[in-house]
Amino acid sequence: MSQSTSHPSSSSSSSPNVHVCTHPLVLCKLTQLRLHDLPAKDFREGVKAIGSMLVYEASRNLPLAPVPDLQSPIAPFTGHAVPLSIGLSPILRAGIGLTDAALDMFPDATVLHLGLFRDKATLQAIEYYSKLPTEVSADLVFVLDPLIATGGTAIAALAMLTEWGLSQSQIKIISVLGSSQGVEKVVSEYPGVEIYIGAVDQELTSKGYISPGLGDAGDRLFSTAK
User: In degrees to the nearest 10, what's the CA dihedral of 115, 199, 190, 210?
Assistant: First the structure.
C-alpha cells in the first residue's frame, strides 16, 4: 500500500505505521460508497470488498512456518502456514460489515466483539459490551472499524485490547475511511499500532462526521438511517 502520485489520494499522518491505500480498485469502490443514494446491499458489498483488500495488505508481512511432508497430486512438497493465532475485533455495530471479509482471509480466527458507541453530545466513546476471554487468546488482532472519525472509538477499543494484555505491535486497525484529525489522534495515543485505511479526508464536522465522508456507516450498513 505505497503512496502513489498517479492516483488521487488524501494526505495523512507522517507516521510509518499509517498505510493509506492508493490502489485503483479501493478508490473506485470508495467512490461508490460515498454516494448518498447507494442501496444498502451495494454499500455492504463495497465495505466487504475494501475490507478484503485492506486485510490482504495488512497481512503482507506476517511470518511463515514450513509445513513439511505434504502431498500434491504429483509429488511430495513442503507448504507454508502462518504460525499465529489471529483475533478479529469488530467494533459493534459497524465493524460487523468488515468481519466476513476478515474471516474469508482467516477462517479459523477468534472473533472478539467490542461494543462501543459515540455519545452524540460529548462525542466520547462509551463501552457497553466486551467479549474478551480472561486470558489473551491471540498473537495478533485486527481491529475492524469502517470509520475513524474523531478517533475516540478506535482509541477506546485499543485501550480495551492493551489492558487485556496485547502490546501495540500485536494490533492492526482496518478502516475504510478516516479523518486526518482522527487518524492523527489515534497515532498520538498508540504510535505502535499499524493502521490500514482506504483514504483519509481532511475535514471533520462539528457533529463529528467525516467530510465529505460517507455518512454513518452503521446506519448505511443496516438501513437504520432516519
Answer: -60
pLDDT of 5 reads 36
Domain, as residue range, for 47:
18-63+83-222
E strand or H helix at 33, and its extent?
helix 24-34
Report how far apart, in Å, the C-alpha atoms of 18 and of each of 10, 134, 186, 217 are.
Answer: 12, 30, 10, 21
Task: For Cα atoms 176, 179, 185, give the angle at the middle one, nearest 5 degrees.
Answer: 110
Q: Select from 172, 125, 213 the least CA-distant residue to 19.
A: 172
In a domain, 58, yes or no: yes
How far, in Å, CA of 173 to CA of 197, rounded?
8
Is the entire prediction scored with pTM above 0.85?
yes
